């Protein structure tokens, strides 16, 4: 059915990812496929890490912990963007193309009127990506 | 199993320091003092004291000036002459210290320190980022003052007592012409050459050094670690960052005010649009709305694209004026102006015992305050491109390349205008708009009028001013947002929208409450405390560099 799952993660808010990661783990086992965890970071020191290198290590550790929990194949991918707040969506679309994944599983919030002005990242990805997108509400 | 392919895929990643650096060990984590939450449907992630104090003060300032415009106008009218006449020596001395500090960094052994660690290699070419830096930092100023300033110094402000080439009755005094012509350019070059770029270099170097080599957040307070230690994470640091936010915001609002007035003058000149406050307010509102779109498109998609387009258009306009104007005279003026600048630099930069207060207080002190208030802003852009350069290489590039571009711009626009004024004083529109009646926003269009295709080039001029306005407003919001989010550069976008909107609002209320003099009064009052911050910063940079291997 699917070849590879992509799960965008923001390590600054790892607590909000639990449900999406559970779903991704279950699906990966069901179809016997791997999961790529992708994060977007700025080149400057940030909340999660002082450098993209350090961020990458944390992302690898996060992926390894997921692999242990669900027993699926994992890989990780860090996208560096000079303006992550505004360019997250483009970075995710690029990550999707580069990773060859065909299913995105992504945490998203409950939409309201404000999404007309600032669309959610999941919503943007669903309208721009060729892959299937599964948005997991909290 | 995790793979490392991600390593190859990051096109712009800045890795951890390479080679030996003196990382500062601190328990502070970026974002630890931030509050996250949501206001209605909008999420936010702000550095609590810095955002609240600066945000609320700005909102209060806007409402005060709107509620009591008469009183505000009186305050602004008094403030500017008071500050420039009382603190002119401080601004001028500080400017000289920044230049000398930069020159010292070039010759001292600490100049060998490499930003990002001894093994680091440069990540960026300068071109794209220099485009942004010009477009963001000086674009509106170059458009506004390019014609005005050289002509004004040539004929009116009498720098160093150089007599005006015009007699009381408006006739030319041939004996004064050559000296005044040289001084017009030299006095302008002084304001746009080494001094402003030394100010920017200091802030950029501080940000780059403490972010790339010491691992601290990208915010002004980080540079003060060698002086205050862990206290920079408390109120000492909050105050430094708040002063930086005020300076940046009012520096930006001043440029936006200049831009709105000039765009209005141009539209009135070409299309007969009325030249009044209502139109300017509509212009600021409309252009801020465009800036908001640019904010939402992000750094690469918005401001970078606009900056690059604008730099090309500005370069074409420069070449046009050079070719269509008196090319030989302009080039000769450029050479003579540079020589006069070198010769008169000691006298022009002397902070004490000056008689030419019109020039020194009215122009130099204002400029230094304005450049200083822009410095967090331009500094952050330069810092982003400077990783991998040595301090020496960095200072030489930042001092010389942009200085030369500015000087060339001034020589071409000012030189062409001065030539028009002196060769045909009776019919010169520049003379009418600058010397006979003082109408600064019109000066550029008056100069273009005497060249071929005036209506086309005037429209290009208006478009340039508007796009420079957009890029300044957009990148200014990014910088202020980064500082008020405790050095985070991925804070939610609605915050940047807030700052962008209030930059426009501040520009509007300053224009309502007294026009240009209100703009200049506020930029000088916020530039003053930041001058003291920058002086301390020089010391901190030196201490930080000494701790690095060199």
UniProtKB/TrEMBL annotation, chain A:
Pfam families linked: Usp
Record InterPro entries: Rossmann-like_a/b/a_fold, Universal_stress_UspA, UspA
Residue stretches in coiled coil: none
Domain of life assignment: Bacteria
Residue span(s) of domain UspA: 1-137
Family: Belongs to the universal stress protein A family.
Name of the molecule in the record: Nucleotide-binding universal stress UspA family protein
Organism: Rhodovulum kholense
Automatic annotation (TrEMBL), chain B:
Record-annotated membrane-spanning stretches: 50-69, 89-108, 129-148, 194-212, 232-257, 277-299, 311-332, 365-383, 395-418, 450-470, 497-516, 522-542
Signal peptide: none
GO cellular component: plasma membrane
UniProt-listed InterPro entries: BCCT_transptr
Primary residence: membrane
Protein name: BCCT family betaine/carnitine transporter
Record's subcellular location: Cell membrane
